[in-house]
Amino acid sequence: MRAWGLTPADVEYLPVGFGDHHWRVTDETGRRWFATVADLAAKPHNGIGVAAARDGLRRAMDTAAALAHLDFVLAPAGDPLVPLGDRHALSVFPYVDGVSGDFGDPPGDVGDLLATLHRQPPPPSTPLAGPALPGRATLDRALVETDRPWTGGPFAEPARDLLARHRPGLRRRLDEFDRLLAALPADLVVTHGEPHPGNVLRTGHGRLLVDWDTVGLAVPERDLWWLGEGRPPAVEFYRLRWDLDDLSVFVEQFRAPHTRTADTEQAWDGYADLVAR
């Protein structure tokens, strides 16, 4: 914590969020901080590969810091991103007491916050949140390889069988994705990316949007689809993109070496639901 001029007096691991690792740090003055360590090998939305993810996450954190004048942006303190070894990076935020929702909760009342965000001039660091599907090649390859065994682990063959049975429907969804992508509007604004209830912290002073690693330039519907608002074709595009992106992650997971764990069982439930839609 020397990069922030902090001397920790107490450090407590917090099993919250998804993907990153978090600690509550109390410094020698009694002030509390929220420390987040990102695994850059698991941040494909920031960039493919550790080096690209580090650059993309740096730009995202720099953007959040540049938006700190907005009273609903919980921005990093000091240096927005400090490398830790070869594949990790640390960000430190002020610790704020509050209550957040969960990912699957009904949409929250954040439309006014998003409207304000979308009116902001984009900071120079703002990444481009391209609408293309990062895992498209994974899905295309899987669809043409359902006639051969998948050997990654206990869920590999069930995943292959389920995908084979629903292949025509998935092909139609990919065709629909391509059609909607081609018709996507060109008006780009600063978007948060994932303004679901799990990323809204309610405090005694108002609402805060957290987890700015997904910030990027995109059409407003990248945010608004979470609320069911916006231009219908663009809203449908981002809803479909979210499902296909999750599906590609599950396919890659089950084709790679894996074992039966609580995490892979949960992933199987999500995969089965997405394929059967």
UniProtKB/TrEMBL annotation:
<dbReference type="InterPro" id="IPR002575">
    <property type="entry name" value="Aminoglycoside_PTrfase"/>
</dbReference>
<protein>
    <recommendedName>
        <fullName>Aminoglycoside phosphotransferase domain-containing protein</fullName>
    </recommendedName>
</protein>
<dbReference type="InterPro" id="IPR011009">
    <property type="entry name" value="Kinase-like_dom_sf"/>
</dbReference>
<feature type="domain" description="Aminoglycoside phosphotransferase">
    <location>
        <begin position="12"/>
        <end position="235"/>
    </location>
</feature>
<dbReference type="Pfam" id="PF01636">
    <property type="entry name" value="APH"/>
</dbReference>
